Amino acid sequence: MFTYLRPGSVGEAVDMLAAYEDARVLAGGTDLLVGIRDGMPCKYLVDIKGIPELNFLKMTDAGLLIGGAVPINRIIGADCVSGSYSVLRDAGMELANHLLRNRATLIGNLCNASPGGDMLGAALVLGGCIEAVSRDGVRVIPLDGFFTGVKRHTLRRDELALRVVFTCIGGRGVYLKKKRIRGHDLAQVGVTAFRHDDGSMDIALGAVAPTPVLLKSVVKAGGEYLPDAVIEAALAGISPISDIRSSREYRVEIVKHFVRQAVDLLYGKEAAS
Q: How many domains does the chain have?
């Protein structure tokens, strides 16, 4: 049994997190409520969905800003999530189903920190940062370094994740996901690749290590794109396991296939057409 709290402002939410050690933040709740049902400790549930400051999604001079309470379906349908940021929309379309996307949030998917989370790779290759606030002030946390283990991250217990910030970026990304069934399912392997306007490419690999793996400049700016070299770099960066969803060997083969496909899509005939 928990006590339900509904703050009306960021300040109220921060005070609640500081006052109650066993408090948890409810953004979408699609993972949190399942966890609580399964025995996750929670004495206070702090529902942030009604806080106006967390419900904005807009493009500014600083880049794309996505508030902590913005649901995935709103990201998918937003005009500003286009061009270079389209990979966020593409990843969002792979997350669960339409009904769950009405509640699930980008911040929630990131803070759940599942190695196979659909939004993690896109947020990483776009160079995203989380802005978090506590009574100590605002802290900017780059997503490259945010994830520390399976469902573990560097956000402190007393911090509230306000928004994700993506600085202005030029390029094009792709998200490739292997799952067991045609419908909604967790990723067996997820590969997100982003080709920058200077010709360099970053890759994020999901469900193949305890945390998502970000490999920067696997293709150098102005360099030649060599699929075999990119595959070699990808395989050196992962440590897949065998579990109920897939064997280690299968994950390795899918990484090879998806990385080659991503290179072809971003540099090959498909990219030129």
A: 2
